[in-house]
Every structure is written in C-alpha cells, then in structure tokens.
Amino acid sequence: MKRTISCVVALGAMVGAATLAMPATASAAPVSETNCAKIATPTNPNGWGNSVSDEQGQAGKITATNVKDADGSLEFATSASMPRQASYHSAGSLPLSALKDASLTFEKSAGAAAWQIRVTGADTGTASGFATLVWDAPVGATLADASTSSQWWATRDLGAIKKYQNGTLDQLIDAANSDGKTATVDLYGISSQPGGTADAKVNVDNVTFHGCTTNFAVKGGDSGLGSVEFPTFGSS
Q1: Which of 133, 123, 119 is nearest to 167 (CA)?
Q2: What are 53-76's pLDDT values in tens digits?
Q3: What letter does residue 162 receive in the DSSP assignment?
Q4: Could you give the CA distance from residue 98 to residue 57 in angstroms, rounded to a whole number?
Q5: What are the entry keywords (predicted)?
Q6: Residue of 74, 206, 218, 226 with fewest CB within 10 Å of its CB?
Q7: SS3 of 91, please?
Q8: Dihedral angle over CA of 210, 96, 131, 25, nearest 10
Q9: Which residues have a Cβ under 8 Å from the Cβ of 36 and sit 6 or more positions away?
C-alpha cells in the first residue's frame, strides 16, 4: 500500500454506490465484544461504510465471494480510476491505550489489504491530534494478524516517532499518548491501495477489533447490538 492516505475525519454508513439502511439499535459506547456489529450485510451494514469527506465512493462492497466461510465477504475492487477503497466502523471514542495487547486480525484473499485506525487527541503537534495508524497485511496472507507486528506506521508524527516510521502498535500508542495526551480511536477499518493502474481485488472477512468480530455476509440476521451512534469528527 502506498503511504499516502487522506486525513479528514467524518462518518456515515454507505457501502458501495447504494444508500444502505442503518440498524434501529445504536449505542455510543466504545466498540467491544458486547457492543459489536457482529454481522454486516448489503441491506444492513451495521455501521460499516465510508463517508469520510475526501473518500466519497471509496467504500468496499459486501459480495457473495467467500474467503473462508460460505456466506460472503467485504470486497475491495481497485483500478486506475479507483486506486483506493476503504470501509470503516465507529470505535465510539475508544481510548487508544485499550488496543495494547488487543487482538487485531482479519481473514483475506490474496491481495492488498491494510488496517486503518483513525485517532484524534494524539501528540501530533496539531490542534485535533488526528492521525491514522496503518498496518499492511502480507499480500499472500490468509489470516492477517497485526497484533505483534513491528510494521505499523502513522500518517503523522507521533511524539518522537516520525510519520511513516515503522514500529509496533504499542510503540505508536505510547508515542501518540506522549506529552500528556490521551488519544482516542474514532474509526477503525480496512483499506486496499495496491498501487499501479491494473485492476485488482481483495476480499476480507471476520474483522476482529477490540474483542468485536464482524462477519460480512450477503444475508443474515441483525445480530449484536448494532452500530454505534456516530458523532462527526474533524481534523486540522
């Protein structure tokens, strides 16, 4: 993945080109095993989507293509005209420090896919403290596990760690919370930005973040507590 991603924070619930229904239940609590969008479908994305201001139209699409289970997955299709796609879910202002020792995994097909953890309140030298923490999964991996990787990087300087400099997630968390800061996670999700101009596709499923696993399925019940009620976040 190219180390250039957007830095304006907002949120909505759109998957692909179609406007999708939001679940009736909602909570502003931080995402967790109990406050979790357990299933996301084309008609009920359960809070998954992308309406970040400068990423309009970049959301992935839930399709019948299987990764490991037999009910579908979240697909990112990139091309010369659409070089990047990304889908997010609100984290409900989860303290970034809560991700220390947390499981961060997803299943995938061959192709480019990356974790995107969008935070505010970090030690970036800006008023908003906005940055995105990124981990690029190995292209050929089927289970992408970023929990102990030393290949995380950030889109902004975090304390003494320069942007794009690799480190563990714990190191980035400590740097984000330096100088008395308390960073929070506003959005988490997956992106695909393989680079080049050739058409590419990757499918991901069973995304696990802070105890919450989302199964992307072409059909299914509205299980879990649904999506979180989202505030709108800004950056500078």
Answers
A1: 133
A2: 999 999 999 999 999 999 999 999
A3: P
A4: 31
A5: Signal
A6: 218
A7: strand
A8: 50
A9: 211, 212, 213, 214, 224, 225
Whole-angstrom Cα Rg for the chain: 16
* CA–CA dist 148, 84 (Å, integer): 26
Total count of residues recorded for the chain = 236
Six-digit token string for 35: 């406050």
**Model confidence over 21-42: pLDDT tens digits?**
333 333 579 999 999 999 999 9
**Which stretches within the chain are classed as H helix?**
169-176
User: Is the confidence at residue 224, as pLDDT, over 90?
Assistant: no
Is the pLDDT at 233 greater than 50? The verdict is no
Give yes or no for residue 106 having a pLDDT over 50: yes
Name the nearest CA neighbour of 91 among 223, 235, 214, 222: 214
- What is the β-pairing status of strands 200-209 and 14-15? unpaired
